[in-house]
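JOB MANIFEST
job_type = single_chain_structure
chain_count = 1
residues = 288
[input]
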Amino acid sequence: MAVLEVEFTTADVARTRFAFSPLWEVVAAVRVLKYPGDHPLHAGWAAVARDRLAAAGVTWGLLSHLVPAHRIPAFLAPPPTTPVPDLDLELRALQATPPQSIREGVAHLDPTPRLEALCQDPENQLAELAASITDFFGVALAPYWPRIMTIYEADVLYRARRLLDGGITRLFDDLDASLAWRDDTLRIAHRRSSGRRSLSGQGLLLVPSVFIWPQVFSLIVPAYQPALRYPPRGWPLCGSTARAMLPRRWPRFSARAARGCWPNSTRRLRRRTSRAVPGCPPAVCRSI
């Protein structure tokens, strides 16, 4: 595993902030559907989403071609420019992508006729892409969006309190197991990237994403605001997924936990079930 080191100055610390991104969540959700084995905690959502997308006749071929397992093109989901953008605002930024940025973004992807068409006719292809993203969001994510926003807001509140309690060190301390903060540098365990990067006074944009687990995604390239997408506390989305992850020997705990959807806390769950939670799967316990 490589390590990407991100250097912070005082200005970078002062400008580190949070934002939400419905466009990125669409991209992350497509990864869940394309690579379900990497996202077992979203299996319940994925099954429902596939049926809904098929029933609605949503076509998302170009979007699928742009979402590999790793190294998603930066232009596909540029970091949001406001803390709580709506999807239309982000899609306008996507449709304004310069042709050169598109060519650079798809250069590392396996060539396909759809990607070639995107490079040759970016205006029309980006308009088609934006329409398919809108349809995908409306069918697969919109029914869950109020719940997702609740998870976002709860996570940011929790992390804001940690920042107030202990500064930037405490903020990054439990953001994700792949992150380590030391000597004004954020170290990110990375599968493919290594070396040192400077934020150049722009700060780091922290973007929670419920569909990104179990990974974090960093975006630190000159043309974009540096960003880190991370899994928030409070997933999975729905009871069927939660129930699938709980051992059958916990009938009382499983029934009560799966009746609603996370977020929750282990302390609250213990109070509700009047028992401890021995042998909790590490992935589940870390999230709650």
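[summary]
Confidence is low (pLDDT under 50) at residues 238-288.
Residues 145-173 form the longest helix (29 residues).
exit_status = 0
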